[in-house]
Specification:
Elements: H1 11-48, E1 50-52, E2 57-63, E3 66-67, E4 70-73, E5 79-82, E6 90-92, E7 99-105, E8 109-113, E9 145-146, E10 152-163, H2 166-172, H3 195-212, H4 217-222, E11 224-227, E12 230-233, H5 234-246, E13 255-266, H6 272-341, H7 343-360
Antiparallel strand pairs: 1-6, 2-3, 2-7, 4-5, 8-10, 9-10, 10-13, 11-12
C-alpha cells in the first residue's frame, strides 16, 4: 500500500463535467434538428419547384432573369426544346428568387377597346330625364373624331386578337411598371405584362383616326358607303388599317387579329336631336323601300305569269288562224280549178254547202212546198198554247 493518502475529487471539477455533458447533449440535439431542417428544406425545394401548366395557359420560365428552354412534347409526341412550356404537363424549376415562371394565356382571345378616347365625358345614352344635355364640346375632357367633311362624331371601338407568338409578345413589349401584384400573391404567378396590350390599343386608335378622316359624317353614322358601285363598311376599312400596322416588320407583335367592331357611334351631343330626326327619316325611307320591294316581289311574278299566259294564248291563236287561212287558200285554189272546168256544178255545190251551214244554225225548220203554177197555198201551224205564268200568292 502507498504511504500517500488518496485525494478526493474536487466538487468544481465534477460540476464542470456535468455541464460539459449537458452542452454536448444540447449540441447533439441541435445538430439533429439541423439535419431534420436540412432534409425538410431539401424536400421543400424538390416539391415546391414542381408545377403543372393549366389548360388554356402557357408558361415562360426565367432563371436569374434569363428565359430558359425545356424539353417538351410537340404535336407529334416527340420531345423537342421549347422556350414556352405547353399546357397539360408537369415541370420542375428552382424556387423563387432563383427561378421565376410567368403564366400567360394560350390560344385565348384578348379584347382591347378605345375606351373613352373618342367618347364625351358624359355618354348621351346615360343621360336620365331631368339631366341637362351637354351643348359644348370640351377639348381635353371629351373625346371625338373628325370626319372627312370636317364634322365631329363620337365612337367606341373594340379589337379582339389572339397571341400566336408568346415569346415576342410578352418579351419584346414588356412593361414591368404595369405588373401589379395583390397583397400576399406569389411573385411567380405575376400577371402578364400589359405593354403589348397597350400598344395594340394605340394601333386601334390610330387606325380609327386615319380611317374616319376619309369618311363623311353621313356615311359614318350609317357605317357604310358606296365606292365605285361597291358597298364598303367602316369596320372593314379600320380592320385593313389595323392589319397593315400590325403586319409590318417593325411592329411584329406576334398576334392574329380576329375581329374589329364598332360598338357605338354618336353625333355631337348638341346636334343629337337633329340627327335623331334624320335617322328617323332614314329609317322611314328604308321601311318604305322595303315595303315597295316586297310589293314588287308579290306583283311582278303574277304579272309575269299573266303576261306569259297571254303570250302563249296569242301564239296558239296565231298558229290556229295561220293554219286556217292556209287551209282556206288551198280550198279556194282547188275550187277555182274546178270552177274553170264545171262552173254550174261548183255553184250548185257551194249553194248546197251554204244552205246546209245555215240550216245547221237554226233550231226549228219549216219546209214549205211551193205548188206548180203559182197557186196560193194556205199553211196553218198549231204551235201550242202560250204557257201560263204562275200566279203570285197573296198573303
Amino acid at each position: 500500500m502507498s504511504s500517500h493518502p488518496a485525494i478526493p475529487p474536487s466538487p468544481s471539477i465534477e460540476g464542470a463535467g456535468e455541464a460539459l455533458k449537458a452542452l454536448v447533449r444540447m449540441f447533439q440535439a441541435l445538430f439533429f434538428l439541423l439535419r431534420i431542417l436540412i432534409i425538410l428544406t431539401f424536400v421543400f425545394l424538390i416539391f415546391s419547384g414542381a408545377f403543372y401548366v393549366k389548360p388554356q395557359y402557357e408558361v415562360m420560365l426565367f432563371r436569374f432573369g434569363k428565359l430558359q428552354s425545356k424539353m417538351v412534347k410537340n404535336e407529334a409526341g416527340q420531345r423537342v426544346e421549347d422556350e414556352v412550356l405547353r399546357p397539360g404537363d408537369w415541370y420542375w424549376a428552382w424556387p423563387y428568387p432563383v427561378s421565376r415562371r410567368k403564366q400567360i394565356p394560350a390560344q385565348m382571345s384578348v379584347t382591347v377597346g378605345t375606351d373613352k378616347a373618342f367618347m364625351p365625358k358624359v355618354n348621351p345614352n346615360d343621360i336620365t330625364p331631368g339631366m341637362p344635355k351637354q351643348t359644348v364640346l370640351r377639348p381635353g375632357e371629351d373625346g371625338y373624331l373628325l370626319t372627312g367633311d370636317k364634322n365631329i362624331v363620337h365612337a367606341s371601338w373594340t379589337l379582339t386578337y389572339r397571341v400566336t407568338d408568346p415569346k415576342r409578345y410578352y418579351l419584346e413589349f414588356y412593361d414591368d411598371s404595369e405588373t401589379i401584384l395583390k397583397a400576399g400573391a406569389d411573385p411567380r404567378d405575376a400577371p402578364p405584362p400589359e405593354g403589348g396590350k397597350e400598344l395594340i390599343r394605340n394601333v386601334l386608335v390610330n387606325a380609327v383616326l386615319c380611317e374616319t378622316a376619309t369618311w363623311s359624317i353621313e356615311d359614318v353614322i350609317v357605317k357604310s358607303r358606296s365606292v365605285d358601285g361597291e358597298i364598303e363598311t367602316l369596320q372593314d376599312g379600320v380592320k385593313k388599317r389595323v392589319l397593315a400596322l400590325v403586319g409590318t416588320d417593325k411592329l411584329d407583335l406576334g398576334i392574329t387579329v380576329q375581329e374589329v367592331s364598332l360598338t357605338v357611334v354618336l353625333p355631337p351631343t348638341a346636334t343629337q336631336d337633329a340627327f335623331d330626326r334624320v335617322f328617323e327619316a332614314s329609317t322611314s325611307r328604308d321601311t318604305m323601300i322595303k315595303l315597295a320591294e316586297g310589293y314588287r316581289e308579290q306583283v311582278v311574278p303574277g304579272a309575269n305569269g299573266e303576261a306569259f299566259k297571254i303570250l302563249s294564248a296569242a301564239r296558239v291563236y296565231r298558229q290556229t288562224i295561220k293554219a286556217s287561212v292556209v287551209a282556206q287558200g288551198e280550198r279556194f285554189k282547188s275550187l277555182l280549178a274546178m270552177y274553170k272546168e264545171k262552173p254550174e256544178a261548183v255553184l250548185v255545190a257551194l249553194y248546197g254547202d251554204t244552205i246546209r251551214d245555215v240550216l245547221e244554225r237554226v233550231d226549228t225548220k219549216y219546209i214549205i212546198h211551193t205548188p206548180d203554177g203559182g197557186a196560193r197555198q194556205e199553211i196553218r201551224l198549231l204551235l201550242g198554247a202560250e204557257p201560263q205564268k204562275p200566279k203570285s200568292k197573296v198573303r
